[in-house]
Structure formats: C-alpha cells, structure tokens
Amino acid sequence: MVTSRDVARLAGVSQSTVSYVMSGRRSISPETRRRVEEAIETLGFQPNAGARALASQRSQVIGLVVPFAPGADMTGVLPFIETITKCAREEDHNVILATEDEGAEGLTRLSDQSLCDAIVLMEVGSKDPRIPVAAGLSVPVILIGVPDDPAGLYCVDLDYTLAGRMAVDELASSAHDRVVLLGYPRDVMARDVNFVRRFLRGAEESAAAHGIAYVEVSPPDTSRAGAEAALDEALTEQGPGGGRLGLVVPDPQLIQPTLQSLLDRGLVPGRDLSVIGLCTDRTAETSTPPVTNLSLEPRDVSRRAMRILFRLLNHESVPTASTVELVTPRLTLRQTSLPAR
Amino acid sequence: MVTSRDVARLAGVSQSTVSYVMSGRRSISPETRRRVEEAIETLGFQPNAGARALASQRSQVIGLVVPFAPGADMTGVLPFIETITKCAREEDHNVILATEDEGAEGLTRLSDQSLCDAIVLMEVGSKDPRIPVAAGLSVPVILIGVPDDPAGLYCVDLDYTLAGRMAVDELASSAHDRVVLLGYPRDVMARDVNFVRRFLRGAEESAAAHGIAYVEVSPPDTSRAGAEAALDEALTEQGPGGGRLGLVVPDPQLIQPTLQSLLDRGLVPGRDLSVIGLCTDRTAETSTPPVTNLSLEPRDVSRRAMRILFRLLNHESVPTASTVELVTPRLTLRQTSLPAR
DNA sequence: CATTGCTGTCGATACGCATCGACACCCCCG
DNA sequence: CGGGGGTGTCGATGCGTATCGACAGCAATG
C-alpha cells in the first residue's frame, strides 16, 4: 500500500505538505506542488479511506436506504439509485446501500458507526416509524417522499397532488365527459401511503373544479384479473358508451393489464377512450400501446434531493424556506389519448 | 460520539478488553463479558467504521459495480443488487456502489483507497477492459458474467448455453416442427456480449441434435416496430401455416412487443404457436399473456457469487476446482406453450 | 515446593491521514 | 537598516480501534 508518507519521501517534503497539496487548505508553492503531484502520479497514490475518515471525521459517503421490502413496488427504483450514485460521485462521494427491511436500526447503524456523512431515505411512508429516529441522528437526512410529520427533515418528492390535477385537467381540456380513476389495489390503500392520498385528492379537486363526472374504483390487486374486475365495475356502472371517457391509472403495475383488458373488450385506447398513466417514461414508452403518462421524474427528484444534501454538508444555507420540495410532473401525450375534437 | 474507551471506563476494564469482548479473539471471563456487554448496551456503543478499518485493514464493505451505462439493459438489475446487499448484511458487511461508467478506474479506486474488501462486478462483457485491471487488484473480485478470458478470476453466471438448449429441447419434446429464434437486436449483437453467443450456440446445438428446423432472425431494435420486422422476416420465410412453430425470444425487452405483434396478426401464443422467453419470472408473469420462460435466476446467481466471495475473505478453501460456476436456469410453463399433442 | 502451562487482563503501539502551532524565510515599508 | 506581515513548510499530535507482548494469578504436575 502506498501512503502519503511514501509520496512525501519521493517528493522530498513532509507528509503534512502532501496532505495540504491534496486538500488545498494551505497555500503551496508552485514548485512544491508540482513535485508532490508528480510523486502522487508516479506512485499511484490513493488516500486510505478509513484513515481519512478517522482523521477528518468525514467519510465522504452517502447512505442510501432503498425499499427492498417484499411487496414494495420496485418499478422505477433503479433510476433513483442511479442518479443518486452519479450525483454523489460528482461531489467525490460514495454511496453505501442499506435496505428498508433493516428499519430504524439501519439508520442508527449508518450514523453511529460513522459509515456515512448523510442519509437519503427513499419511499417514505405517511407514518414511517423511521422518521422520529431519523430526526435524532447526528447526520443530516433527506427524505424522498413526504411523511405526515416531516419532523423538520428535508423532503423531496413528486408533486402528486399536482399530478392528479394535471391528469384530470388534461382530460377536461380535451373535451372528455367523465373520468374513471382506476385506483391502487386494496393492499396499497391499506398501507395508507401518502402519495396515493395526494394523487387522489388532486384528481378529485380537478374533477370538481371542472364539473366533470368522476368515479374511483379499486382493483383487488395488480394482476390481469384485478384490472378486469376494476374495469367491469367501472364500465358497467356507467355503461360503456356515450361521451368521451378518460381513464386515469396511477399504479404503474396496473397499466399494461388495463390496456390489455380494454383491447380485449374491443375498446381501443386512443380511439374509443383515453388512458393516462402515472409511471416512468420508460414504462410508458414500452407499454402496448405507448400510454400517455405523467412522469415520476425520478432523476429530477433525486437531483433535487442531492443538491439539498450537499448544501447541508457544505454548510451552505439551504435556500428554500420550506422543508418540503415538490417536483412538477411532466405530461407526455402518446397513443392512448383521444385526438382533440 | 461513544467510543470503546467510554465503554471500558463504565465497565471498569481496559479498552483492549472491550475490543476482545466484541471480537471474541481472546477468552474473557463470564463476569467481565457481562459487565462489558452491559456497558455497551447502556451507552449504545457502535464501533467507528473508519477506525476499525484503519486498525484491522478490513473495511467490512463489499464493492458492487452495477451497469448503469446508458443503453445497458437495466431490467432485472435490481434483484441482483437486492440479493447481494442482503447476503452482505448477513455476514455483517456493507455494500458500496460504483457505476460501470467509471470503468476500470472505479475498480482501482475502490481497491486502492481501501474502500472495500472485495468487489462484485456485474454484467461482464466478453472482452471487458476491466478484467485485466480486476485481476491485478489487491482485493478479490467476483464476476457476474463470463468474459472470454477470466484471467483466473471467479465467475458466476447463468448457464446460457444450457438455457438455449433447454428452450429448444422443450419445443422438440412437445412435438414442435420448427423453431424460430428471435435474436437480439443488432446493437447488442455488435457489442458481442458473451451470453448472447452462448445462448445461441445452445439453441443451435439442440436443434441440430433433434434434427428440427431452425432459423434465427435479428430485429433491428427492441421496439414494437423492430419486433414486427423480425416477425415478418421469420414468418414469410417459412409461411405462417403448417406444423407446430416454436418461437424463442431471448431478449427480455423484446418479449412483450413480440407477443403483441403476434396477437395483431391473429396468432395466439399458446393456441397457434409456442413462445418461450428468457427473462426474469417477474417479467414473465406480468407479460400479456404470461409467457413460458427460462428464468435468469438473479437471486441464485448472486447468492452463489457471494458465497464464493465470503469464502475467499475468510480464507476458506473454495471448493470448486473450476473458476466458472454456472447456474441452471428454470423452465416455467405458462400460457404461451402449445398443449402437448 | 519449584516448575510449567493456562487463563484473563492490561498497557503500549500502529494504522494513515488531517490539522494545529511553530517558524524560517522573504518582501516591503518606514 | 530594522521591524512587521505574509507565505510556505515542517513536526507533532490525535482520530478510535485492533492486536501484540507482558504478566499476574491460579491449577496441575513432578
């Protein structure tokens, strides 16, 4: 192993000088700097992470807690991980992974063992039991998702209320007469996840504002049969015909089954009715047919979270007065939207 | 911050005794052990990771290099990450993430900075430029995927050759007359990925062995249009009718488009022909209709890799003489298989 | 009783780096 | 020509843990 002492010896300077060359925390003469950098290059010196962390009280590591819990919707988790990792690297930090199923102890472990300088907590639930613990840690914590009580922690999330509103707004403005919201399956509803409530509220509000007919049906699960059942309920209740129907499907897993069920009934999305999904663009592009969607913007959300995080780490002031930052979803029209009339 | 010295003071022992209680590397009297453990509990002591790493030359961290490169197939990466992380935690290790786009430097960084004790390298290509670098690192490296020259490194992967053989074996044994292999898109073929070649070879071999008609067509890309084009080529060439046709689709991204294209032509998978996909079970279950598939077994592959890894770290002998460990795929019949005749 | 061999504990040290205080040197100004 | 204020470098120290050698106490042995 090459140490900074080896570099110092080769460059003919002291070890501390090497350290100052690398950190830039003291001025160094151009000549010395050159010699040291040359020595670093020659020896291929890389500072020992443990020693650095021990001496500086900074691990240069970000803890990322991901939802691997069984049953959690893992669709679209990857873009978050990807973006967060890349943002971290841009700031010369590394990412250490923890899984949701470790619960609150996972958080204290990361923090108390000085494994990381900050924590990003993904997929935060309404009354997430980790929140009070997170609030008491010695490292800053950024939440992706908005709990009922953020306990002063910084939160970033998609603006689900706005997403719900945008979905119905779009349908209303393209002359649809009625909206059916194909809700989340019962088990998701039972978990009382925050963003579900927010989305539904936004959709309802918009429907009310536009004076447009609005019903909400909950499928038993996200299977093909679940979609069938929900559609049965939705369509028989109102009759299949008459007017322009808009279907809003906020659960990504339900989109493909729903589209398929519609086709089986001879109802072609984009010809006989509109379908708007809430899912990643990738999911929307690859569904058959490609579905008009509101993007979950995982990259934007992640980037915003990381910006806050590094501002906190660098003791810069965090500009927003608010503790909750919401990202605006993006609507992309694809093949499942009825043409304007 | 609570240190082992604090624990020692409270327990009335020396710091080194605390360390020995925790590591179990020297015998400790029951009475002393009790007092120390009580003190640890009381203070909520967690050893400082950096200090521990510095002193013991062990970071208790596994480096995981994931394929986030643009264009890489990210489908199914998550189960690998999940399983690897969980295996690591079972052995009291953490996982640090690196992205493929850091290339070989990412590997030397992880190793030379002593950020981790071992590295898992995912999605290794045939002539992956990282292999020679990996072979020279001071930490063990486990590959997921098999390069042309493993350079003495341990590799774990699905047995793609067997998968190809199993696909055609299944079709042959269920009285199919001919097999069309809807290959990988041209850009994947161009990258000359190892597992693609292996799968195709297995399929060819089996077809030859069974004396069954076999053609292979390559779609331009994984879009719907790409699937259409490939199907056009495959079906016109042989005519749509006559005998029992089996379609093998090894690219997960191509499966849904292909199924859809078939349905559009009035060809119902499971009634008019058979379709076998190579994809995760999850993908197979959620396709419409659910496709008979050979599983990629990400959990098995990951677990095998981690077992080797920890054996290496614990200086246990690694049992296999061979450096390459292949996992047997699992065939699951679903709705796209023709009933036996 | 002297010796040997354990068992259980302690003190000291090393790990590699960051940082603080000291200080030698030089330049500029009085 | 003397003093003051930078500038650039160094030595020393500390971060918190693991581990080595030492050794006190005790039991078993000849």
TrEMBL record, chains A, B:
This protein's record includes keyword Cell division: no
Domain HTH cro/C1-type: 3-46
Keyword Mitochondrion attributed: no
Single GO MF annotation: DNA binding
Domain HTH lacI-type residue range list: 2-56
Pfam families (UniProt xref): LacI (PF00356), Peripla_BP_3 (PF13377)
CDD domains from the UniProt entry: HTH_LacI, PBP1_LacI_sugar_binding-like
Entry keywords, A to Z: DNA-binding, Transcription, Transcription regulation
InterPro entries per UniProt: Cro/C1-type_HTH (IPR001387), HTH_LacI (IPR000843), LacI/GalR-like_sensor (IPR046335), Lambda_DNA-bd_dom_sf (IPR010982), Peripla_BP_I (IPR028082)
PANTHER family tied to this protein: LACI-RELATED TRANSCRIPTIONAL REPRESSOR, LACTOSE OPERON REPRESSOR
Protein name: DNA-binding LacI/PurR family transcriptional regulator
Source species: Streptomyces pseudovenezuelae
